[in-house]
């Protein structure tokens, strides 16, 4: 049994995206801070509407998946082929942009707290030009599991394995085989789970304090701890309840060329994406989408 330890810490940096939404970016804050297949993780968190009200108006994506997980607040998604979804507390939207999508994500509140995460997961070269797919996952479809030694975990993707049994999340059968957990540990509680050898993993601590591994390496709040390889992860909450995201997935080991919202393997493919966007060919037309039955009819 090999314990996973924290190999590298990525502090989150304050930045803004969309029409000026304030957020904190850790993984993906630069091209040297990706963790294959994870391209980026943003946390948006504010009680001040000025920080989020402008939202993310219409913008394109190609070549990867975007996963939005809301903790507080309400956001509406609309895309170029007529798809619509509402995200409330605890809901997840899993979108595979693949060959292209143009969408907007707009807050549906003018006061109160807006809090959540957006994760970008890369797609393998052979799937980057597939048709896009999209899934709204209501909070009620996400298992909230009691952990063996106390605390709970929401299983968004992949399978949580504990001594007492296995729990499957609603998202399965993605090529990078992502594990996506939201773990809540009461003060002093230990959490232990196997993580497939060879998969890249990281924790993002968003509440409290926690330590990782036998040596008790401390992770600060609002930082991402990239994990060494191994088959077991042990995390212990500190003096207050710890809340963290645990992500792990199969690395693609392919070249990554990114230009804003386009992530491909070569510069030529990026040039093609920009050209397709400018000429209106990035995404499916409504009739193509209906013919392919990619999206539910709206
Ligand atoms: Co987007």
Which descriptors would you attach to this protein?
single chain; seven-stranded antiparallel beta sheet; 26 strands; 48% strand
Find the count of extended strands (DSSP E, 2+ residues): 26
Instruction: Give me the CATH architecture, please.
Output: Sandwich
Going across the biggest sheet, name each strand in turn: 1-22-19-24-17-14-13
Order of helices and strands: EEEEEEEEEEEEEEEEEEEEEEEEEEHH
* CATH topology-level name: Jelly Rolls
Ends apart, CA distance between termini: 51 Å
Bound molecules: cobalt (II) ion
The 3D shape can be described as: globular
SSE layout and pairing:
Blueprint: E1 6-11, E2 13-17, E3 21-25, E4 38-46, E5 56-61, E6 64-72, E7 75-79, E8 84-87, E9 92-96, E10 101-107, E11 114-122, E12 133-137, E13 144-146, E14 152-157, E15 159-162, E16 165-168, E17 179-185, E18 190-194, E19 200-207, E20 210-212, E21 217-219, E22 223-227, E23 232-237, E24 242-249, E25 257-259, E26 262-264, H1 267-278, H2 286-292
Antiparallel strand pairs: 1-22, 2-3, 3-4, 4-11, 5-10, 6-9, 6-11, 7-8, 7-10, 9-12, 13-14, 14-17, 15-16, 17-24, 18-23, 19-22, 19-24, 20-21, 20-23, 25-26
Bound molecules: cobalt (II) ion (CO).
